[in-house]
UniProtKB/TrEMBL annotation:
InterPro entries named among the record's database cross-references: Chorismate_synth (IPR000453), Chorismate_synth_AroC_sf (IPR035904), Chorismate_synthase_CS (IPR020541)
Matching PROSITE patterns: CHORISMATE_SYNTHASE_2
GO MF term list: chorismate synthase activity
Protein name (database record): Chorismate synthase
Entry's family note: Belongs to the chorismate synthase family.
TM ranges: none
Species this chain originates from: Weissella fermenti
Domain of life: Bacteria
NCBIfam families linked: aroC, PRK05382.1
Catalytic reaction equation(s): 5-O-(1-carboxyvinyl)-3-phosphoshikimate = chorismate + phosphate
Cofactor: record remark: Reduced FMN (FMNH(2)).
SUPFAM superfamilies attached to this UniProt entry: Chorismate synthase, AroC (SSF103263)
Amino acids binding NADP(+): 39, 45
Amino acid sequence: MRYMTAGESHGPEEVAIIEGIPSGLNLTSDMIDQELARRQHAYGRGQRQVIETDTVSILSGVRHQKTLGSPITLNVHNDDHNHWTKIMDPNTPATAENSMRKVMRPRPGHADLVGGIKYRHQADLRNVLERSSARETVMRVAVGAVAKAVLREIGVDVHGFVRNVGPAKSDLSRLTDFKSLDELRAVTESFPTRALDASGDEEMQTVIDKTKRDANTVGGTVQVMATGMPVGLGSYVAATEKLDAKIARAIVSINAFKGVDFGGGFDNAEKFGDEVMDEIFWDAENGFTRGTNNLGGFEGGMTTGGVIVVRGVVKPIPTLYRPMQSVDIDTHENHRASIERSDTTAVTAAAVIAEAMVAIELAQAVLDKFDADNIDRLKEQVAIYREEVRSF
Ligand SMILES: Cc1cc2nc3c(=O)[nH]c(=O)nc-3n(C[C@H](O)[C@H](O)[C@H](O)COP(=O)(O)O)c2cc1C
Ligand SMILES: C=C(O[C@@H]1CC(C(=O)O)=C[C@@H](OP(=O)(O)O)[C@H]1O)C(=O)O
C-alpha cells in the first residue's frame, strides 16, 4: 500500500490516491466522513472549521461499497476556496489584484521563511504556506480511515486521544495498557464537544479558552494505542524495515509534531532494566505472553503482539495574534510577523491525525507481509499465521 496527497489549503480540492488496498473490502464515504468529522470538530480550532464541511467523494477504486483492488482516489472539497478563487487561480499571471493577501513577514515556527528561501518564493510566501498548511492532514485522515477498515477486518483496533494540553493533563495520560479500546474510546471520543466527569477534559478546555483570550497558542501530547496486531510485523534485519521507526517517522511527519516515544518512552530513561523489560510467560492456550507492556508493543522493530502505545509531542501553533519579531523579506526591515487566520491549538485534531498515521503504517506492514490481493484471502493468511505464532 502506498499513497500520495495533493492540494493547496485554499485551492479548490484536496486529493489522495491510494494503491494496494485489497479487493472486496467494504468501504463507503460515510466510513471516511466519520473520521473527518472527528478531526474537524476538535476543540480549539479557528474560524476555518466553521466554513468547511469535510466530506469525501470516492472517485475511483470502489464499486457498490466494495473495493476493486484498483487505485482508490479520494477527494475533499475546500469550501473556503470560493473566497480565494482569484488569489489561487492557476491560469492568470500575478497582478496587483490577484496577489492580495501576500505574506512577506515570515511567521517564526512556520515553514514560511525556509520554504521561501528554498523554492525562491521571494514574491510571496503564500506559495509556501498553501501547501505547508495542515489542511493537507484532512487527506491523511481519509487515507487512515481506509487503513482502519483493512485493520478492522483482521481484528486490529486503533485509537488516539489527547494526553495533555499545555499544563492540563487528562487522567488517561498514564495509561499504557488496555485489553480493549472500547472503554478508552467511550471516554475520549466525545472530547472536546462536551465536558466529561473524568479524564481532565474540562481543565483542558479551560486552558484552551484562556490561551485564546490571551491571543496565544498552546501545544500538548497525544497518545495512540493499537490492539490486536499480530506478532512479528516489521523486522530487525534492516534499519529500513523497523516498524517502530516507520511509525516514528509517520508521527513526526505531521505538522507541528516535534517528538515521539513508545510505551514508557522517555520515562524509561529514569528507570532500571528490571523495571522496564516485559517478562515472558507461556501457557498452552495463548502461547507466549508478557506480564507488562513497558516497551509499547515493539522489540527489535517488530510487533510483540502487545498493545502498541505511541505518544507524540505537538508544539504550540506558530501563528500568533500578538505576533513575534520577524523581518520583511522585501525591505529587510524589522516587523512583527504576518497574521493569518489561525487555530489556538492543534492538539485535539492532532490526536485524530496521529491515529490515522499509525493506522496507515500498521496497514502497510500487514499488506506487505501477507497476500493482500483480496480481503478474504488476507484474513485467511493472517489466521494461519496467528495459529503458527500461538503454537510456537
Ligand atoms: C491540525 C493542525 C492545525 C494547525 N493549524 C495551524 C494554524 O491554524 N496556524 C498555524 O500557524 N499553524 C497551524 N498548524 C501548524 C503548522 O501547520 C506547522 O507548524 C507548520 O506547517 C510548520 O511545520 P512544523 O511545525 O512541523 O515544523 C497546525 C497543525 C495541525 C496538525
Ligand atoms: C484548514 C485547516 O487547518 C489550517 C491549518 C493551518 C496551518 O497553517 O497549518 C492554518 C489555518 O488555515 P486558515 O488560515 O485557512 O484557517 C488552519 O485552518 C484544516 O485543518 O482543515
